[in-house]
Design brief:
Number of strands: 2
Strand content: 5-15%
Bound molecules: zinc ion
Largest sheet: 2 strands, antiparallel
Radius of gyration: 13 Å
Helix content: 10-25%
Organism: Halobaculum litoreum
Protein name: Metallothionein
Distance between the termini: 51 Å
Structural class: alpha+beta
């Protein structure tokens, strides 16, 4: 058994890339992504950037 971690977006082994780990919402575990590209794609796909404190729309 090797210590591999799959990207939450594309399913690749993140350890061969430049992985980033994100703690989402109330989850206690960190979610792995290959890089910021996969993270950004995931955020965009899930609409996680909508309704956050970053939004300035009223
Ligand atoms: Zn990925």
């Amino acid at each position: 058994m090797s210590d591999t971690t799959d990207c939450a977006y594309c399913g690749c082994d993140v350890t061969v890339h430049d992985p980033v780990y994100v703690r989402e919402g109330g989850e206690s575990s960190e979610t792995p992504y290959c890089n910021y590209g996969c993270l950004a794609a995931h955020v965009e796909e899930e609409g996680l950037a909508v309704g956050t404190t970053c939004s300035v729309e009223l």
